[in-house]
Amino acid sequence: MKGTIIIFAVALLSIGCKSQQVQDRTIKLTVTETSDYCGGAAPNEELMLELLKEKPFTGTIYVHSISDRTDDGQKLVISNGELKQSGFSEGVYFVYFHPKFDREDPANAKLGDEKVSCLEMVSFQHSAKFFITKETKSVNFNVHKMCDPCSPPRP
User: Fold this and answer.
1) End-to-end Cα, the chain, rounded Å
2) Which of 37, 56, 81, 126 is geometrically suited to a Cys-Cys bond with 94, CB 3.0 to 4.6 A?
3) Domains of the chain with CATH codes
């Protein structure tokens, strides 16, 4: 009986260590970006092709393992398209440009219902997703910047 308990405890510890190794492992993220044209007058073909060409992304993204963003998520600052990050366990991750919008935040009460609804909608649109497995050492993905639907179009 005592031997069975010890074997069971060792098995549990080894399972815990394996999942911990996945979370503590550093993964290299390589992020590129493309974007929509958000100007006024119709752009020329050269500009449109340039916007669709992938370039290294620099900026902040928000990564969540649940698409409705009910998890804590991670705020990641990417510089020149690369970041080494730990804390990922196995699974799918959703990438967002905006922090999760909180309708209950008193600062948002002054925005008006239409603006609040738009900002809430935008905060739940993921721009990309990626997968982490036990073997993952690096992840490459592209984020696409769309025009802001909550602001009036440029003249």
Assistant:
1) 79
2) 126
3) 26-145 (2.60.40)
Provide the token pair at 122.
């935008």
Residue 82 to residue 140: CA distance in whole angstroms: 9
What DSSP element (H or E) covers 136? none
- Asked if residue 126 lies in contact with residue 146, where contact means CB atoms within 8 angstroms, the answer is no
Helices (H), the chain: 2-24, 45-52, 113-123
Number of neighbouring beta carbons within 10 Å of residue 98 = 17
Segment 113-133, tens digit of pLDDT: 888 899 999 999 999 999 999
* Entry pTM: 0.78
Helix residue ranges per DSSP H, 53-131: 113-123
Q: Report phi then psi at 41, rounded to 5.
A: -65, 155
- Buried/exposed code over 134-144 (b: 16+ C-beta within 10 A; e: otherwise): eeeeebebebe
Token pair 């769309």 in the structure block, residue: 146
27-35 and 55-56: which strand pairing? antiparallel
CA 44 to chain centre: 31
Of 54, 30, 36, nearest in space to 141 by CA:
30
Largest CA distance in the chain: 79
